[in-house]
From TrEMBL:
Residues 53-213 form the Glycosyltransferase RgtA/B/C/D-like domain. Keywords: Cell membrane, Glycosyltransferase, Membrane, Transferase, Transmembrane, Transmembrane helix. It is a multi-pass membrane protein. One of its GO terms (biological process) is lipopolysaccharide biosynthetic process. This is Glycosyltransferase RgtA/B/C/D-like domain-containing protein. It comes from the Bacteria. The chain crosses the membrane at residues 12-34, 74-92, 104-122, 152-183, 195-213, 242-265, 285-305, 311-327, 334-355.
């Protein structure tokens, strides 16, 4: 033990990484359930080959951990923390292939200090396993290409397939690999190698469950992820808010120093390629092949489309290794100072909820809402509960309550994967219901005064009850409107005939 402590003391990089991870681990029990945690936990409790809005890897991970350690918010968060810690370890291994020991240590400090690692450690999303399998894919491909270890082509194919089974953006891995081989004079011959094609075939084979689920469900997931976004992009409406919003997100996730280093070296490499027709050396080109398509590709869409803050995350893996080539001790120190300040602010918010979040994307109030809803069910017996906000309220109540909670498919609206849980809504005919509607802005304690326009079509009578007010540290922080709905009709059109 003393040798281990001495090793940590003499290794500043490990000390910093362990310090950041220990901070996150200490904060973990104080983090309440996020809607994303509850929704992907629902994935795991309803095992399927794939799911409507994403592949199922995060759901499988949560199912595994909660089956072993029990269902609790802490275990859900611990799943994310452990997987992200494995990503950090894998990243350091990958960085050591490209950087000197000192620069690799700088790179791991850069990565560990970012807020996006904190988000992945605290919040269940498909990006949690995606980043791990993305990093493992790059390790395997590096060894297959640069160390000519053929067995790693097979392992790389498996890792790329598992990355795709985490999130569809992992398709960029195969794209990046092909782009690297095309532009690399030294390794272009590998495009004809049977090992390369075996790796691609294996990666596709591993994704078979996702394709088969889509085949069984009229390719609903692929259509959901592509058609709406494609139509929005093709409209080509410029919006400065999208662009500056994306910059704000990246400054928050990476912190200013690292983001500016990203912009600097991206400009440098693109300028050299376009003006001097000069490509970097093979290893640097490899890193860029898995950075440029995702980072620059999504950034180029920001003037016309709202790019979500997590879409660029996979590019950070090789991007931070590239940043490690350029960043100096002074900039690294500034990055760490920024990080400490921001993480302390995050800790204060988690512990004391100083700034109320005017959104359902919060960790506050869900358990209290479930308790109050169960009290209503005791008062209004033989009722089922449903909500209408895509998944957030319904998923969180499902996590805490014994009775099944439904989503907006109760009133004929699309409800993401709730539509694919196999529920026969006609079994609810004639039952009464409690409808929960979140007041995201919460300006007063008044009733809403009006019903959801669809509800009256599915129930004979709707009565608004007193809203549920959630308090935190004695302060009123959240509000939910409540409606008592009588005599449900799953198919109102046929009932009216």
């Amino acid at each position: 033990m003393s040798k281990f402590l001495s090793f940590i003391k003499n290794n500043k990089a490990i000390s910093w990484v362990l310090g950041f991870q220990l901070f996150r681990l200490i904060l973990l029990p104080f983090m309440g359930l996020m809607p994303q945690d509850a929704y992907y936990y629902l994935y795991g409790q309803n095992l399927s080959l794939s799911y409507f809005d994403h592949p199922g890897m995060i759901g499988y991970c949560l199912r595994l951990f909660t089956d072993i350690f029990g269902q609790s918010v802490f275990v859900v968060k611990l799943t994310d923390f452990i997987i992200t810690s494995l990503t950090l370890f894998s990243f350091y291994k990958l960085a050591s292939y490209f950087l000197s020991k000192q620069k690799a240590e700088n790179a791991i400090i850069l990565l560990a200090s970012t807020l996006f690692i904190s988000i992945l450690s605290f919040n269940s999303t498909p990006d949690v396993p995606l980043l791990l399998f993305w990093t493992l894919s790059l390790i395997c491909l590096y060894k297959a290409i640069f160390e000519e270890k053929k067995g790693y082509w097979i392992l790389g194919g498996i890792a790329m397939g598992l990355a795709f089974n985490s999130k569809y953006t992992a398709l960029v891995l195969q794209i990046g690999l092909i782009l690297f081989l095309i532009f690399s004079k030294k390794y272009r011959k590998l495009l004809l190698s049977p090992w390369f094609w075996l790796s691609i075939i294996i990666s596709v084979a591993i994704t078979f469950p996702v394709w088969y689920w889509n085949y069984q469900n009229e390719f609903a997931s692929f259509a959901f992820q592509s058609s709406e976004r494609t139509s929005s992009i093709t409209e080509f409406k410029l919006d400065a808010g999208y662009f500056f919003g994306a910059i704000g997100h990246q400054l928050f996730l990476l912190l200013p120093v690292l983001f500016l280093v990203f912009i600097t070296f991206t400009f440098k490499f693109i300028k050299r390629a376009l003006l001097k027709f000069k490509l970097p050396k093979s290893k640097t080109l490899f890193l860029l092949a898995f950075f440029i398509p995702t980072f620059v590709g999504f950034f180029s869409l920001t003037p016309i489309y709202w790019v979500k803050l997590n879409w660029m995350m996979p590019s950070y893996i090789t991007g931070i290794i590239l940043a490690g080539m350029f960043i100096n001790k002074k900039l690294l120190k500034i990055q760490v100072i920024f990080s400490i300040v921001f993480h302390l602010l995050v800790a204060l918010e988690v512990l004391f909820y100083l700034v109320p979040i005017k959104s359902d994307d919060t960790w506050v109030g869900w358990k209290e809402l479930a308790i109050e809803t169960e009290k209503l069910q005791e008062e209004y017996t033989n009722t089922f509960v449903f909500s209408d906000d895509n998944y957030k309220t319904s998923a969180c109540l499902n996590f805490y309550m014994d009775d099944k909670v439904y989503a907006q498919n109760i009133i004929g609206l699309p409800a993401l994967h709730f539509d694919y849980l196999g529920d026969n809504l006609s079994t609810l005919n004639g039952k009464n219901a409690i409808f929960i509607d979140s007041d995201k802005r919460f300006k007063n304690k008044d009733k809403k005064g009006e019903n959801h326009p669809k509800i009256n079509n599915y129930f004979d009578k709707v009565t608004e009850l007193a809203p549920i007010i959630i308090k935190r540290n004695g302060k009123e922080v959240r509000k939910f409107w409540v409606f008592y709905c009588e005599n449900y009709k799953a198919n109102p059109s046929s009932t009216n005939k």
